[in-house]
């Protein structure tokens, strides 16, 4: 598989170009560039001009309308991943086809919204930008649709052509617009576009509509009535394969050949010789390539030409035969002046059933990984990548999904979608997620909790610890001891919890009261995280008991605090001072114990 | 790619380093004007300078952030032979309102006898450790044992590399399988010692760093070096900025149970690019190590990417266009950003960095028989716009060739 050697795109930075270097710094979703000079001399002097330029790649994730595409396709993606693996493939095919259609309808919806904005805005730049996006989505949908027909639905001969016909009709809807114009005019049959419409209908195999249009012309030319009747008959009798019917493909083929001969006879008989237009139509029906090529403008594209040609010369075309016709049609349609463009090559690769080439070419031609990632994922689920004997089939899928999801991660809200994508990348998904989720800015507690929940659900204990530590540190720096303590408890960071408990105790010594009483009172088992924390909790409990005048319990607790040796040395004086009023209490049964110096010889 | 915004950094002299913090919401810049500036990004994406102060008595070469687990901490290194550690102090409430913050010096590291060329924090799982390297050929590793007291740093290791050092990079891997490891690059012109990149590894038994490997194939001056983030791989990836860009794969070999020395590393060259046609001065990986950026004497920044087959290619170039913006010399804290230069047309906006080499160019006029006919925005666009024609001129094609707005798929309705 050849990689095209194309020069990479150059982005201009408004900076000096001669004699200066360009420094850079990677950021989340962008790269900063600035003028500098790297030659290590003793304090290089330079001009004072110092600008730092923020260089970004993708605008897509910042577009509000495209964001809906990302959101909705994420939903479809997750649904696809959970399809049961054990069903036989033939039962899964309709599911895959329907998922493919879902994706396409999401693309369509997005396109329509973009177009509405493009049309209604007064800003020329916005209009152009949105217009460009619409055209890209059009191309994407075109390609996806063809992939669905050829790869996912994998229609056999007979149905294949019908699907291709649908495909072409869907993407060449300007006929209807023209038809509407013609029909709404005073005398449709005399409209200058009339015959264009009729021929276009025929080219698309929409014979019923062609017949209805022709009726209008027939009424205007009573003298030629027989000719129009003949044409009408030919159009009515053209056989179309019915996949659900009882007729076999061979039977259909025979019928079709008979009809084809009939049309040819009309031509030989010069039945339509006196009417140029009908003659043209007859020639089209018989599959005259030159006549088809005469109508390049109406066909518009080589692939329309391809489908029309097949319709009128080989409707029982087999999938494996497609690429011969595709290649020759493209060559015939594009004259020597025209070079095939990226879209052409992609479609050709599809007709050649070279899925890999399709994916590769799409990756090169498009600047967003959305399309290739989702399409490849779907094709992988259809087991189509493996059948191409690529041992890196699943790696390709993962590679593209990782690229796409990583791009989402830099967005302030879309990053949550990315998590699901990483979850479904068995090899590297987890490590990519670990790496990137740490970098999500923890602007608010709520956001931090959201990130934490994601990490906790996946047992990413190191990330949990790290995020809690960052929040604890931040709280501590801002002197919010309660918040800092609760974050350290969540981080299970004993050392930090100790540190903060010390601060609380210092605070108490300094001010005589505790702050954040709620938190300390409700520590529960978390108290056991560190000795100091336990002491803090218990000490507060002592104060509570004392305040409630439950002196005997208070004294008991105080005693245990002293003997358990978890009291920090700095606190012993305080404890002893606290003991004094208890000693004076007559009800304290243990005051004799408190007064006994044996308990703490080491403390004095 | 395109320039989304330009920030007037207002340094009085060359900027030597710009460093994003861990979350990408703050950045630090340092300059030959001997100062460091700290910038904060607001919710709407604008950068505000929240601090600017003189840090050294010589050009400041590099500035780097510690991991936010240690708080808001910066380190800087300078031509004045020192490195310094700075901590942000939560200021008075009216300071906060004015959007200012204060940074105070916690320590100055004066052990080097010559210009300190690089300063880097070690990976966070090693604690708060700072590494410097100097032109005196010594790498120094300092540790702050008490994270709450940043004025206490002890010099834990002094490693003599015998060559003037220009850059260091720590292996970010925190896997238990990999002992702490860093790489040092040298721009020494001395040819006696062949390899200009040395890899050192920590030995649990001796509690010292020992040289694990010298990259003998790198004989030219090395200006920058960068380990790639480790994505659960068993091997390490190292990028080097020398007379070209080089990427090495270092594969740890299985250790004998009796071996007490550093891990033997098998060195393989993965890629080599000389597109800069000259000296390469900086290399740096993005967060997921999927992209490498390099800056060279040709005044360009190049971006390198590997496809899923592990083939590396240049996927983008940043280049000075010769017309620098003229700065307004306002107050250092003044926010003067120039929003998105219109040098980039929407055409460039569609150029992707990672994949987009070329794209569907919708601005070309469609030719007869061209499939572009239906790729351009539908005719309704043309009919409804009052402004002057936005669409490219169409030669010889009736505009009705464009397909109409597409209908939702009828089949999708029953889903």
TrEMBL record, chain A:
Pfam (any one): Nucleopor_Nup85
A GO biological-process term: positive regulation of DNA-templated transcription
Source superkingdom: Eukaryota
Keyword Protein transport (UniProt): yes
Coiled coil (UniProt feature): none
One GO location term (cellular component): nuclear membrane
Primary localisation category: nucleus
Keywords for the protein's UniProt record, in alphabetical order: Membrane, mRNA transport, Nuclear pore complex, Nucleus, Protein transport, Translocation, Transport
Compartments, record wording: Nucleus, Nuclear pore complex
UniProt-recorded Gene Ontology molecular function terms: structural constituent of nuclear pore
Family the entry assigns: Belongs to the nucleoporin Nup85 family.
Quaternary context: Component of the nuclear pore complex (NPC).
Function: Functions as a component of the nuclear pore complex (NPC).
Full protein name: Nuclear pore complex protein Nup85
Source organism per UniProt: Cottoperca gobio (Frogmouth)
Gene: nup85
UniProtKB/TrEMBL annotation, chain B:
Annotated localization: Chromosome, Centromere, Kinetochore; Lysosome membrane; Nucleus, Nuclear pore complex
Keyword Plastid: no
Transmembrane domains' residue ranges: none
GO biological process terms, semicolon-separated: cell division; cellular response to amino acid starvation; chromosome segregation; positive regulation of TORC1 signaling; protein transport
Molecular functions per Gene Ontology: structural molecule activity
GO cellular component: kinetochore; lysosomal membrane; nuclear pore outer ring; Seh1-associated complex
Keyword Zinc: no
Residue windows of the WD repeats: 8-40, 273-305
Matching Pfam families: WD40 (PF00400)
Keywords in alphabetical order: Cell cycle, Cell division, Centromere, Chromosome partition, Kinetochore, Lysosome, Mitosis, mRNA transport, Nuclear pore complex, Nucleus, Protein transport, Repeat, Translocation, Transport, WD repeat
InterPro entries per the UniProt record, alphabetical: Sec13/Seh1_fam (IPR037363), WD40/YVTN_repeat-like_dom_sf (IPR015943), WD40_PAC1 (IPR020472), WD40_repeat_dom_sf (IPR036322), WD40_rpt (IPR001680)
Function according to Swiss-Prot or TrEMBL: Component of the Nup107-160 subcomplex of the nuclear pore complex (NPC). The Nup107-160 subcomplex is required for the assembly of a functional NPC. The Nup107-160 subcomplex is also required for normal kinetochore microtubule attachment, mitotic progression and chromosome segregation. This subunit plays a role in recruitment of the Nup107-160 subcomplex to the kinetochore.
Family from the record: Belongs to the WD repeat SEC13 family.
Protein name: Nucleoporin SEH1 isoform X1
Organism of provenance: Cottoperca gobio (Frogmouth)
């Amino acid at each position: 598989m050849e990689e095209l050697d194309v020069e990479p795109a150059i982005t201009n930075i408004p900076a000096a170009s001669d004699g200066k270097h360009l420094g850079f710094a990677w950021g989340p979703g962008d790269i900063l560039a600035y003028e500098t000079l790297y030659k290590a001399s003793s304090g290089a002097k330079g001009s004072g001009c110092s600008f730092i330029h923020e260089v970004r790649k993708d605008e897509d994730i910042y577009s509000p309308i495209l964001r809906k595409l990302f959101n909705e396709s994420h939903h479809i993606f997750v649904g696809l991943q959970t399809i049961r693996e054990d069903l036989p493939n033939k039962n899964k095919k309709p599911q895959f086809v329907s998922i493919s259609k879902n994706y396409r309808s999401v693309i369509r919806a997005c396109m329509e919204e973009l177009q509405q904005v493009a049309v209604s805005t007064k800003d020329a730049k916005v209009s152009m930008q949105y217009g460009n996006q619409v055209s890209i989505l059009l191309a994407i949908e075109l390609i996806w649709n063809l992939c669905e027909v050829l790869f996912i639905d994998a229609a056999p001969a007979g149905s294949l052509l019908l699907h291709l016909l649908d495909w072409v009709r869907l993407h060449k809807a300007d006929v209807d617009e023209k038809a509407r114009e013609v029909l709404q005019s005073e005398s449709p049959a005399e409209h200058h576009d009339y015959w264009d419409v009729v021929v276009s209908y025929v080219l698309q195999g929409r014979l019923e509509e062609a017949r209805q249009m022709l009726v209008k012309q027939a009424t205007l030319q009573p003298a030629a009535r027989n000719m129009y009747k003949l044409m009408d008959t030919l159009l009515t009798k053209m056989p179309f394969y019915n996949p659900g019917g009882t007729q076999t493909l061979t039977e259909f083929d025979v019928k079709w050949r008979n009809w084809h001969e009939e049309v040819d006879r009309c031509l030989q008989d010069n039945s339509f010789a006196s009417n140029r237009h009908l003659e043209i139509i007859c020639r089209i029906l018989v599959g005259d390539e030159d006549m088809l090529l005469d109508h390049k403008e109406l066909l518009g594209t080589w692939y329309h030409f391809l489908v029309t040609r097949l319709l009128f010369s080989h409707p029982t075309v087999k999938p494996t035969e497609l690429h011969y016709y595709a290649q020759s049609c493209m060559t015939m349609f594009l004259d020597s002046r025209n070079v095939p463009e990226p879209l052409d090559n992609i479609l050709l690769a599809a007709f050649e059933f070279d899925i890999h080439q399709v994916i590769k070419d799409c990756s090169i031609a498009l600047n967003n990984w959305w399309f290739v990632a989702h399409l490849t994922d779907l094709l992988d689920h259809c087991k189509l990548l493996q059948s191409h004997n690529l041992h890196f089939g699943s790696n390709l899928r993962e590679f593209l999904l990782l690229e796409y999801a990583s791009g989402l991660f830099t967005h302030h809200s879309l990053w949550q979608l990315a998590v699901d994508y990483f979850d479904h990348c068995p090899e590297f998904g987890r490590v990519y997620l670990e790496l990137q989720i740490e970098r999500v800015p923890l602007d608010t507690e709520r956001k931090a909790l959201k990130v934490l929940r994601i990490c906790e659900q996946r047992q990413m204990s190191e990330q949990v610890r790290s995020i809690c530590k960052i929040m604890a540190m931040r709280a501590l720096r801002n002197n919010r001891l309660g918040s800092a303590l609760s974050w350290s408890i969540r981080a299970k960071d004993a050392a930090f919890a100790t540190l903060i408990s010390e601060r609380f105790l210092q605070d108490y010594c300094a001010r005589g009261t505790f702050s954040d009483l709620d938190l300390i009172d409700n520590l529960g088992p978390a108290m056991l995280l560190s000795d100091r924390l336990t002491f803090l909790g218990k000490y507060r409990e002592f104060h509570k008991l004392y305040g409630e005048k439950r002196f005997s319990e208070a004294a008991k607790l105080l005693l245990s605090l002293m003997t358990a040796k978890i009291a920090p040395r700095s606190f012993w004086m305080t404890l002893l001072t606290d003991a004094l009023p208890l000693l004076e209490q007559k009800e304290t049964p243990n005051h004799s114990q408190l007064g006994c110096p044996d308990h703490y010889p080491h403390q004095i | 790619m395109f320039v989304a915004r330009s920030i007037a950094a207002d340094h009085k002299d060359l900027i030597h380093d710009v460093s994003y913090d861990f979350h990408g919401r703050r950045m630090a810049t340092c300059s030959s004007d001997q100062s460091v500036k700290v910038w904060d990004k607001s919710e709407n994406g604008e950068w505000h300078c929240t601090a600017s102060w003189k840090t050294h008595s010589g050009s400041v070469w590099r500035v780097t952030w510690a991991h936010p687990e240690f708080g808001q901490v910066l380190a800087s290194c300078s031509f004045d032979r020192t490195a310094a550690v700075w901590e942000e102090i939560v200021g008075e409430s009216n300071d906060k309102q004015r959007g200012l913050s204060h940074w105070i010096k916690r320590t100055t590291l004066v052990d080097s006898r010559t210009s300190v060329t690089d300063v880097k924090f070690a990976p966070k799982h090693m604690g708060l450790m700072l590494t410097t390297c100097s032109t005196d050929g010594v790498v120094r590793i300092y540790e702050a044992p008490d994270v709450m007291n940043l004025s206490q740093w002890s010099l834990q290791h002094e490693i003599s590399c015998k060559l003037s050092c220009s850059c260091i990079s720590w292996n970010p891997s925190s896997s238990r399988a990999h002992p702490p490891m860093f790489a040092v690059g040298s721009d020494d012109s001395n040819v006696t010692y062949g390899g200009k990149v040395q890899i050192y590894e920590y030995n649990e038994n001796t509690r010292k760093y020992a040289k694990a490997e010298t990259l003998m194939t790198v004989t030219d001056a090395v200006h920058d070096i960068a380990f790639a983030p480790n994505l659960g791989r068993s091997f390490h990836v190292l990028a080097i900025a020398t007379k070209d860009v080089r990427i090495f794969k270092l594969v740890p070999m299985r250790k004998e149970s009796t071996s007490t020395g550093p891990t033997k590393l098998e060195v393989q060259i993965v890629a080599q690019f000389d597109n800069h046609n000259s000296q390469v001065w900086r290399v740096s990986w993005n967060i997921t190590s999927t992209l490498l950026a390099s800056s060279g004497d040709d005044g360009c920044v190049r971006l390198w990417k590997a496809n899923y087959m592990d083939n590396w290619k240049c996927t983008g170039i940043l280049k000075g266009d010769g017309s620098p913006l003229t700065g307004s010399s306002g107050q250092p804290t003044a926010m003067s950003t120039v929003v998105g230069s219109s040098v980039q047309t929407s055409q460039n906006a569609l150029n992707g960095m990672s994949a987009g080499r070329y794209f569907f160019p919708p601005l070309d006029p469609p030719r007869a028989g061209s499939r572009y006919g239906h790729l351009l925005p539908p005719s309704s666009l043309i009919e409804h716009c009052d402004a002057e024609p936005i669409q490219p001129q169409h030669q010889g094609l009736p505009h009705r060739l464009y397909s109409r707005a597409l209908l939702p798929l009828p089949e999708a309705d029953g889903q």
